[in-house]
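User: Good morning. I'm curious how manganese (II) ion would be positioned relative to this chain. Could you predict the structure with it bound?
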Amino acid sequence: MRTITLEEHFATVEILKATAHLQPPARNDFVKAVEAKLLDLGKSRIADMDAAGIDLQVLSLTNAGLDKLDGSAATALVHDANDKLADAARAYPQRFAGFAALALQEPDKAAAELERCVKKLGFKGTLLHGTVKGVFLDDARFTPVFEAAQALDVPVYLHPTLPPKEVEEAYFGGLPGLTGFFLATAAWGWHAELGMHCLRLIVSGLFDRFPKLKIIIGHMGEDLPFSIARADAVLARETKHLQRRVSEYFQQHFYITTSGYFTVPPLLCTMQVMGADRILFSIDYPYSPNTVGRNFLNALPVSAEDMGKISHGNAERLLKL
Ligand code: MN
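Assistant: Good morning! Here's the predicted structure, ligand included:
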């Protein structure tokens, strides 16, 4: 069974060097632990894929806090990272594909870079890391990026990022050891924030402005499948400006990957809310091991038809692979 994963990360030496001093030490330690795997776009990555029967990784730049750099530096760094990713995909066309990295400090240049990546480098979309200097992507300044994604007919993968300093202190401060850091990130905060970010995009009217826009989110839907009915009911009181219900935007514009979530209950919830056509298998390599994801996939309590959709069919259709 062909297996495709699409929240799989890499880094460049230049980007890690440029951003390390801007990241919290705990985040740097986290990246350090898997740095060799992030930097490898060749044989050892492929060996790790082979060990878990993964045929194709759609690669994206890891979250390195690029929005903390000034715009022109970040724009140059992502241009170079996209070129390196394109080289890897050219060297191993059966094994790697790409999502463009963009520097959103300069939205017009980011839109042009997305176009270059899709048209010239053959990339399949873009992966963006949550907020930009604490600003959510429903802000009008980011319109050119969504405009480009819709015009190019490629999805935008929304990935979590570290919370703004004030949020970190108010919500996650005063806790023992690194528990606050982990609560702010992969244990909880990332997912709560990204789910809320998606609801912001919906209530802002983004999908009325871009009715063909497609968004991918990881981590089994960032808690939205579990909570969308209540959000829909409550927001219905105050969303007369929207053409559709909140839950309809969610079910019609969003695709969900399994990255980092390898237990069955949230998958079943997501199946019931979204259906098997909108669920795509992913790992979150190298932060999650390929073999853990593979074992989870193999044991899924779904039909052979749905297994085919989740492991490769939906990705092939959505990304035109
Ligand atoms: Mn990730």
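The first helix runs from residue 13 to 19. The radius of gyration is 18 Å.
Let me know if you'd like a different ligand tried.
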